[in-house]
UniProtKB/TrEMBL annotation:
Its EC number is 2.1.2.2. Catalyzes the transfer of a formyl group from 10-formyltetrahydrofolate to 5-phospho-ribosyl-glycinamide (GAR), producing 5-phospho-ribosyl-N-formylglycinamide (FGAR) and tetrahydrofolate. GO terms for molecular function: phosphoribosylglycinamide formyltransferase activity. Coiled coil: none annotated. Pathway: Purine metabolism; IMP biosynthesis via de novo pathway; N(2)-formyl-N(1)-(5-phospho-D-ribosyl)glycinamide from N(1)-(5-phospho-D-ribosyl)glycinamide (10-formyl THF route): step 1/1. This is Phosphoribosylglycinamide formyltransferase. Belongs to the GART family. It is an enzyme of class 2 (transferase). (6R)-10-formyltetrahydrofolate binds at residues 64, 89-92, 106.
Amino acid sequence: KRVVIFISGGGSNMEALIRASRAEDYPAEIIAVYSDKAEAGGIAKAEAAGIATRIFVRKDYASKEAHEEAILASLAHDRPDIICLAGYMRLLSGRFIASYEGRILNIHPSLLPLFPGLHTHQRALDAGVKLAGCTVHLVTEGMDEGPILAQAAVPVLKGDTAETLAARVLTAEHKIYPLVLRQFASGKAEPQPADAMIISASL
Ligand code: GRF
């Protein structure tokens, strides 16, 4: 399966997907990395991995529609079977999503439906939850609300800050996203129950 990854920042999830895709039995090939930020750290990482990068800066376009038009035109050439959003900080329009209905995945750093949106780790700490984690879901028009494919949980530890919790969740993200893409690309939409991992950090 042909996969395109969308990033806006450092691209550590992108890196994890690229690394996983190198296994010869991996059912997905990363065709290109798209970014809406010219300075995204992930661009250099993608280039270093020999993956094509395509940059579409929003302010270069007259409107959101024009911006998406340009991206869709480029995607028509790349012909992805699957689009993986990985730290992509822009909402896709219903029209865009309809073009790739049921084939856009996203990773969100919380156990949805808890804490959709931003600053998820601080909100989890403020709420006093004992478990945090990440969710891979299908992208629908609403933000962070599509069907959940898999989740990974990590404990919230005494003295955690948003930074220490984010780092612990990120390691779980890097494990679960490649696994979900493997399952999704091989046609098993939902990973087997065993794959909905509970990551136990060293308590
Ligand atoms: C991660 O927490 C991810 O869950 C969120 O963006 C953060 C950075 O991701 N979507 P990355 O390092 O750019 O992959």
